From TrEMBL:
Keywords (A to Z) from UniProt: Lyase
GO BP annotations, alphabetical order: fatty acid beta-oxidation
Pfam family of the protein (one): ECH_1
Naturally occurring in which organism (per UniProt): Seohaeicola zhoushanensis
Entry protein name: Enoyl-CoA hydratase
Similarity comment: Belongs to the enoyl-CoA hydratase/isomerase family.
Entry GO MF terms: lyase activity
PANTHER family according to UniProt: ENOYL-COA HYDRATASE, MITOCHONDRIAL, ENOYL-COA HYDRATASE-RELATED
Keyword hit for Lyase: yes
Length: 260
């Protein structure tokens, strides 16, 4: 079995990135972060890949950071090193031009939930457990979790999750809005691939522009975001794919999107 911390499998238009440190429950360290950047480079550079799935090897999706490594760090050196690395990675994933899907196979705690908050679609195995337990270690989420969760969940629910450090069952995670749905463990990857295949049939160019519109608009006042949407849909209407989709509808045939 390979010891590479990140595995990348490409099947047609769908790539699957697997965090492969099962002996540590896929805890994130600097080497794993750098390997994830390398995998993202490959996916970004391949126009045939239209959707990226994230999952974990073994019993965990990501069970957090390397606690021994965190305990060895203090203040400014931590901010300049590991914190900078993981913030850069998660922001890159959040704004990645291709749609992302989390296939959560087990524990997604701390950094695992923080990564999930940066993914577009989140599918949970019925064996998954989510949470931000950093408070029990005398810490709080520091990989973007405090800021992303309050933008995605009601503030009172986000605070309860962070203040208590309690783990959430899959059904609880869906009920508060952290994930899309729960599926039987054995059906997890099939469900993720089915969703990915459905998305991969759409225009990669329009998906890219849609994702940019959503990401950029989330950081704008509504008035500016609406103007931004108007400008972006103008770009879409200047694409071959937009006219292919409309023509296919009028001609009662399936559209063939080329990304132009």
């Amino acid at each position: 079995m390979t010891t590479d911390p990140i595995l990348l499998d490409v099947d047609g238009a769908i790539a699957t990135l697997t965090i492969n440190r099962p002996e540590t429950l896929n805890a994130l360290d600097t080497a794993t972060i750098q390997a994830m950047h390398g995998a993202l480079d490959k996916v970004a550079a391949d126009p045939a890949i239209r959707v990226l799935i994230f999952t974990g090897a073994g019993r965990a999706f990501i069970a957090g950071g390397d606690i021994a490594d965190l305990n060895s760090r203090q203040g400014l050196p931590h901010y300049q090193e590991f914190a900078e690395d993981i913030h850069t990675l998660f922001r890159r994933i959040e704004t990645f031009d291709k749609p992302t899907i989390g296939a959560v196979n087990g524990f997604a705690l701390g950094g695992g939930t923080e990564l999930l908050l940066a993914l577009d679609i989140r599918i949970l195995s019925d064996k998954a457990r989510l949470g931000l337990p950093e408070i029990t270690l005398g810490l709080f989420p520091g990989a973007g979790g405090t800021q992303r969760i309050i933008r995605q969940l009601p503030l009172c629910r986000a605070k309860e999750i962070m203040y208590t450090g309690d783990m959430l069952t899959p059904d609880e995670a869906v009920s508060v809005g952290l994930a899309n749905r729960v599926v039987p463990h054995e059906a997890l990857m099939e469900s993720a691939r089915e969703t990915a295949a459905k998305i991969a049939q759409k225009s990669p160019l329009v998906l890219k522009l849609l994702k940019r519109t959503l990401s950029d608009g989330a950081d704008m006042p509504l008035s500016a975001a609406l103007r931004h949407e108007q400008a972006m849909i103008g770009l879409v209407l200047d694409s071959a794919d937009a006219h292919e989709g409309c023509s296919a509808f009028l001609e009662k045939r399936a559209a063939t999107f080329t990304g132009r």
